[in-house]
Amino acid sequence: MPIDTVVIPVAGLGTRLLPATKSQPKEMLPVGRKPVVQYVVEELTRVGMHRVLFVTGPGKASIENHFDLNGELIQILRETGKEELLAELEFERAAVQYFYTRQRQLLGLGHAVLCARSFVGDRPFVVALGDSIIGMHAQSDVVRRMIACFEERQAAAVIAFEEVPAAEVRRYGIAKPKDGGEIFEIDDLVEKPSVDEAPSNLAIAARYVLAPVIFDALERTPPGKGGEIQLTDAIRSVIGDGGRAFGVRLPPAERRYDIGNFDAYFRAFVDFALADPRFGASLRRYLEGLLHVSGT
Ligand code: UTP
């Protein structure tokens, strides 16, 4: 049976983006024209995920509303002759079923994935972080390549990786690869290492394909760094038990836009706005003028 289920954890507090995230989810912040999580869902539905489970928390209701049909809005647009704007709501009609569960205690990403256990059952599934876009305008099919790898190599886990500058390894889970290439076997993973400890500069990049054995591993995983149950620790324990895990490198054209901090968020917004077919050219002229005038 094809893998058709994606779990999207969106329960985190997003404290690094305060005050913007005080009363709205970081996953709903706009990047260009769309909220982050809409790019995530569009990427995943294009590669065949028809069951989307959001792991949510308090203050995340706007995510549910965003993916719901808004009949009143459609009617108003029709009645006021704004037919062209209806196309902007096409995503509401995607052939997807949405499900929601609550992470009742914020015990980390691993715990958020564990909340999906009874929904997912005993089938492999995809995990996609709700605060990370892959590729300009989410034009990435890396999850398709990851699923192919998962099936061909009978893997227990396949993870997307992106090369990051050495100074940034301490912000991510980092791979210790067994071999090279676009697809590589993972010997081990290190969560947020120092530059000296890091076995490579390959950082986990927000997309996973996982066998259901991960749930037993998560149940056994004690809280790690920051008192949180780390998904990385559970994947390490699956590898330790003899499961095989593989990494798929993101090519530069499918880079990860992490919306978790302001520096990355601002850059992502500018990149997407500059690539906007309607407004990009005028923004470029504006920025060129601005930078020229300020002499930077
Ligand atoms: P982050 O690791 O960026 O954590 O989450 P965060 O708590 O949202 O952000 P800060 O550190 O307070 O700024 C990565 C993804 O995992 C989800 C988040 O919603 C985000 O989409 N997440 C994280 C959960 O669903 N539950 C958690 O307990 C932690």
What does this structure look like?
The protein is of the alpha/beta class. The chain has one domain (5-295): Spore Coat Polysaccharide Biosynthesis Protein SpsA, Chain A. The chain has 11 helices and 13 strands. The strands form 3 sheets. The protein has a 9-stranded mixed beta sheet. Strand 9 (173-177) and strand 10 (183-191) form a beta hairpin. It is globular. The termini are far apart. 39% of the residues are buried. The model has no long low-confidence stretch (mean pLDDT 94). Residues 9-16, 27, 55, 103, 106-109, 111-112, 129-131, 260 line the site of uridine 5'-triphosphate.
CATH class type: Alpha Beta
User: Secondary-structure element sequence?
Assistant: EEEHEHHHEHHEEHEEEEHHEEHH
The CATH architecture designation is Alpha-Beta Complex
Number of structural domains:
1
Radius of gyration: 20 Å
Strand fraction equals: 15-25%
Shape: globular
List low-pLDDT spans.
Answer: none
CATH topology: Spore Coat Polysaccharide Biosynthesis Protein SpsA, Chain A
Distance N to C terminus: 56 Å
> Taking all residues together, what is the mean pLDDT?
94
Bound molecules: uridine 5'-triphosphate
Overall helicity: 25-40%
Secondary-structure class = alpha/beta
**Number of DSSP helical runs:** 11
> CATH superfamily assignment?
Spore Coat Polysaccharide Biosynthesis Protein SpsA, Chain A
Question: Can you list the strand order of the major beta sheet?
Answer: 5-4-1-6-11-8-12-10-9
**Main sheet attributes: strand count, strand direction, barrel closure:** 9 strands, mixed
Strand tally: 13
